[in-house]
Amino acid sequence: MLLPQTSSYDALVRDFQWQIPSPLNIGEAVSDAWAAIDPSRICLEHFSPDGRHLSMTYGALSARSASLASGFCELGLGRGDRIAILLPQGFETVTAHVAIYKMGAIALPLALLFGEEALEYRLKAAGAAAIVTNAFGLSRLRAILPAVPELRHVIVTGDGASPESLGFDQLVDRHPGPFPVVATQPDDPALMIFTSGTTGPPKAALHGHRVLAGHIPGFQMGHDLAPQPGDRIWTPSDWAWAGGLLNVLLPALMLGIAVVSSPPQKFDAEMAFRILSEMKVRNAFIPPTALRLLRSVRNPRDRYALDLRTIASAGEALGRETFEWARDTLGVTVNELFGQTECNFVLGSSAALGISRAGAIGRAVPGHRVAIVDAAGAEVPTGETGQIAVRSPDPVMFLGYWNDPEATAAKFADGWLLTGDLGRMDSEGYVEFIGRDDDVITSSGYRIGPSEIEDCLCGHPAVRLAAVVGKPDRLRTEIVKAYVVPANGYAPGPGLADELRDWVKNRLSMHEYPREIAFVDDLPLTTSGKVIRRMLRQRAAAE
Q1: Residue limits of the AMP-binding enzyme C-terminal domain (predicted)?
Q2: Cis peptide before 163 (omega within 30 of 0)
Q3: pTM (two decimals)
Q4: Which of 45, 304, 339, 80 is nearest to 192 (CA)?
Q5: Domains of the chain, with CATH numbers?
């Protein structure tokens, strides 16, 4: 399962064989396995803005998660029960995850950014029996608790416990001693993650314990054959999203790499550089939107003591402009990765392996077969556009959508999992990301992907963020419309709009430039930091 230390990508692909252990329990693999070898090894470090940073050992994680698992069982919770986690990055979040896996239950991570309706929808759909949250999360839950009768237990961290809830620390403290980890099999359910809902209602993707093993090759490739001495990883991504949980937290813990957590906040570029510097972060997973926001900080290497070895990125197309900025300004080649909630980490880049190309999201990660196919699942010729697809079976692939066999079946065609993302593959196996099938713009007979235009716009110094959608047009079917968040110091107006149109015309093509540009204060984003173009399409159609 682990990649050998080699510089040959071709050898890795040729020689790789999956060796999934059985039984396999995620909780045991990310805590007890290391605690048995070196209980004093640091597994978690927490950044505090006041400089009072905290740390946790594998021994402590193993013991506290065992105590919490015993507490859950005392409450009548057991194997197969869905237990929600509504917490920010932190030690309690990891402890809850590990405890849930150890007892054979199913973890349901939820983002604190969710409002009442979003929480109610997910808790009901999953049939959650319990939830672990903090005082802020409890304040969100109070209004919806009567509408979620299956939610029998609310466990609150810190001092936020109330008459309708239980104290997290009290539940842990009254159950000292070991816990008999359930001997789960690779295909036994372990984790339920709702899709981000960029193109429609979110669906609950159910994963087995094998999902952790399936992510290891992609994690190692994205971080240039991690683990290496001194590796320490951080991501601004919420651990409720597959990008934070499966791209970073769980694989790193399994490989013995310390994970840095940070307080919840709206992404702040200066604070991000503080975290990278003060916590001596060597590895980072930073989504493209956050990387673009980092560009607002001038001369970061002169102001912060950065010692980055790797940066991985996924979730949206990174784009040539951001790729080159990171290489030139941060001194690190960003390793772009591709996957989705249902089937993650299947394409990747690695500067150490020579698999790196601006504008491409990489090549197939060892152990995964990826192709470009049509709607029926037939592979298209090299260089043609189609859906990015993954061959089934695959250890990283979801078990199915929760209680939705029809949607699960519709996700596959002729043995391929259809991602719904459009791309092109060249003769060397590099894949260029075009965009979601729903996001592609049809204008005057051309099919136009939004990612390339967004990347081009973000290369202009006046643009902080940009999103592009198709707006209905009687003559051209659709026109390209851009929503632009101006950079500090630039005033929006007709003059800047004309300048941006010319910028795209001169760098891309005459048919791809945005005929309409709207300047906005911000863009609608999912909790994972992806632009919700569906909302912008609706807005454009109504204008």
Answers
A1: 452-530
A2: no
A3: 0.85
A4: 80
A5: 59-208 (3.40.50.980), 440-542 (3.30.300.30)
